[in-house]
Design brief:
The structure is a homodimer of 360-residue chains. With 360 residues, chain A is of the alpha/beta class. The first copy, chain A, has helices at residues 16-24, 44-61, 75-87, 100-110, 226-231, 241-256, 259-280, 305-317, 342-358, and strands at 5-6, 67-72, 92-97, 114-120, 144-147, 149-150, 155-156, 168-171, 188-192, 203-208, 285-286, 297-301, 320-321, 332-335. In chain A, strand 6 (149-150) and strand 7 form a beta hairpin. Chain A is globular and about 65 Å long.
Amino acid sequence: MGRVYNFSAGPAMLPVEVLEEAQADMLDYKGSGQSVMEMSHRSKIFDNIIKEAEADFRKLVGVPDNYSVLFLQGGGSQQFAAVPLNLYKNRKAGYINTGNWANKARQEAARFGNAVELASSKDKNYTYIPDCSDLPITDDMDYVYICQNNTIYGTRYPELPNTKGRELVSDVSSMFLSEPLDVTKYGVVYGGVQKNVGPAGVVIDVIRKDLIRDDVCPETPTMLKWKTQDDKDSLYNTPNCWGIYICGLVFKWLLKQGGLGAMKERNEHKAAILYDYLDQSKLFHPTVQPPYRSLMNVPFVTGDKEMDAKFVAEAAEHGLVNVKGHRTVGGMRASIYNAMPEEGVKALVEFMDKFEKENA
Amino acid sequence: MGRVYNFSAGPAMLPVEVLEEAQADMLDYKGSGQSVMEMSHRSKIFDNIIKEAEADFRKLVGVPDNYSVLFLQGGGSQQFAAVPLNLYKNRKAGYINTGNWANKARQEAARFGNAVELASSKDKNYTYIPDCSDLPITDDMDYVYICQNNTIYGTRYPELPNTKGRELVSDVSSMFLSEPLDVTKYGVVYGGVQKNVGPAGVVIDVIRKDLIRDDVCPETPTMLKWKTQDDKDSLYNTPNCWGIYICGLVFKWLLKQGGLGAMKERNEHKAAILYDYLDQSKLFHPTVQPPYRSLMNVPFVTGDKEMDAKFVAEAAEHGLVNVKGHRTVGGMRASIYNAMPEEGVKALVEFMDKFEKENA
């Protein structure tokens, strides 16, 4: 059926131009006679790839010199352990529970210290972001942790929490590079790339340099210690070279699109097309209230499981794939990341409209 | 200059047929309308990819049902921590020091318990494998650990050590799938794939199921606990999907070549071409004695640093790249993994012969 519009929550669509470039260079990258998959990570040519990827990322985001950028393995789930192991001094931190991933991060931190739940939106199945203006944060907390965009529930922090002077740590996986990111507001901000940035198997950490310490928790495995990789510019051992290469191509694509400001405009426009339709639909209902809506992950339901299933199946037949919602929310979810073109969102809305009329 | 012969120690050459298939399917894998890099790891289509990769690997190696096969991230370096954290009961293990990687593995294990050096070949710069027939192994050791092929020094165990009933754990990264592997002789055998099997960012662990425990060391991060991934068939979180896909293509290629027995024959033949030349050369000298020679990594020196550098530079000009040796050995190293064709080895030997005559 040709290329589909893939609404997967991740891994998800990549820009066609990026795929085409990777395809063209597959057996012979820039006249090197090698695939990027075959290159020594210690070679000059790969060193150029990773250095250029980092430089383009820094340019795109505007990362100040006092922050390190690390390309790591193991995904967000591994950072759930790395964050407390690297940041704990008092072995105490505050976590805001806005869903599955924030909660898993807290549970992992609780294995190594006191990870306090500061607030939660569990009472309404995580359909909103709690008020974070005056949380019970204490001076002995080493950091405050958030998951800034919640892939499963389709919520996004309308503003950053008041951390009362504690370091802010944020998992931005499902909104990574979808809008401008003011790194200076965070001690650590990280994201798995497999939603908005690249193929699975790379997580990018942006860490203020003074938080990269040698005196981490003694039980920290060498590979989870940020200093290990920071000292070696992400080349302590062989990294996911191919993944970093593809991320680098995506960074160049984003720069060509006009950068993160332009992406935000485009993403707001795309999201509005879908939310506007949902807000007037009599069949489909969005699950999240306007102030907390994600620009990236849009869950919606009909309230009728059989109707949901029928919609998901028929959508797939029309080349609109992976719109099934997460089991904890039910219904549907359309993830409309950077690489999802406006035409894809329009095609989805047109199909929903047609389906609504047919099933009125 | 077209495709080069790449003698890198890893990442290294991949079969051209594999690269061509990945290239052809880059924007539309088997009519799915998606790149493998864009697929949800929870989708039916990716599930087929990982299941087929595991089934082909099991067939290729002959992995018995009482062993699990896990596709993990973080490379061998992360397994250096995972091995003791998952296997320690008495927090004591024996390590045989045959070079850099074996030693790094022991140092990491020593951070979590008593990792005893049972034998070492450091006295002769790791150019041989110690006698392992009667090592000072005690009953309270949880396992005995080896690095079975030493990438840097070009040595390989001529036979497995007598572990006196203790579990054998082996890192086979740089000989992975280059010859038959009798999994039943090991408790755990693992390898980073980036030398002989696939692109960097995947490590494959083969673990006897009774060694996959819930009562691991309490400080084990969830992502380093083998049971976490074993319970979810390597899909606890998003894996390196692309890397697993390429490994799967390599497994199919290896099966088509006749399997690991056929690969061993081919690799012995390739290695003999190079060692036979080295053993009669007056300019180039192999650094490892015959009983301990690796089939995969062949270090050699002229004894003259300037001559070495001249050779490395001229070889590269002739499309024979990455023959520079590791700094701890000096000279040259030719890594001749599965995907290095016989023609590549012959081209190297012809060039060496010509160089020797010109520089006599």
